[in-house]
Design brief:
There is one protein chain. The chain is 41% helix and 11% strand. The protein is an alpha/beta fold and 195 residues long. The protein has three domains: 42 residues, no CATH class; 100 residues, 3-Layer(aba) Sandwich (Rossmann fold), CATH 3.40.50; 27 residues, no CATH class. Helix 1 crosses helix 2 and helix 4 runs parallel beside helix 5. The longest helix has 17 residues. The chain starts with 28 loop residues before the first helix and ends with a helix.
């Protein structure tokens, strides 16, 4: 299936190109509740509220009391600001990626002289947010791959506030929307295919 290349987009009109029953996940009351809250936020605030405002509204509608913020230490200043905003209404547990001081050598990981010996610990972040009794985890700027480990190990509902892109000012879609950057990405992909 290549929905990204579909020109018809009949599914937007309720006429899918592939008829399939609803996934079993939608039978779960928690999933249904989450979908309902998400659709309410989308219906009421689409194009009106920014991502942070939408997350706050979603958390309210989900009845959250305590939010968990899993952030990259490289975004510590931004995390302080976000934490201040979130904690005005909710209890907050904020955990940076270096929690626990796990060493890269203990995980047989590559080291870079400029990045220090402590590894990111996304599974540790997930565990800390779970132990703290958070109702919703918010991911902010975890590294590519580390975010994958966080999503795989965290048993809480998760949403993403921001993704890290050190080159494009944490705006990875600039690689798609800016023609100069997009051309460079495509050129690099094509060059790798030639080898």
């Amino acid at each position: 299936m290549r929905c990204d290349a579909c020109a018809e987009q009949t599914c937007l009109k309720g006429k899918p190109c592939v008829e399939k029953p609803l996934p079993e996940a939608y039978a779960d009351p928690g999933i249904r509740r989450t979908m309902r809250a998400a659709s309410e936020v989308e219906a009421e605030f689409y194009g009106v509220k920014n991502r942070l405002e939408e997350i706050l509204e979603f958390a309210r509608r989900m009845g959250c009391r305590k939010l968990g913020l899993a952030f990259c230490i490289g975004l510590a200043e931004e995390a302080r600001i976000v934490g201040d905003i979130l904690s005005r209404e909710f209890e907050l547990e904020a955990v940076c990626c270096k929690v626990g001081g796990v060493l890269k050598k203990d995980l047989d990981m590559a080291e870079s002289p400029g990045l220090g010996s402590a590894s990111c610990n996304p599974a540790g972040q997930a565990g800390q947010l779970e132990r703290a009794g958070c109702d919703l985890a918010i991911v902010m700027g975890l590294c590519v791959g580390h975010d994958t480990v966080f999503y795989r190990t965290c048993r809480l509902p998760i949403t993403t506030l921001a993704v890290k892109d050190r080159v494009l000012g944490h705006n990875p879609l600039a690689a798609v929307t800016c023609p100069y950057v997009r051309k460079r990405v495509i050129k690099d992909v094509e060059a790798r295919q030639e080898h």
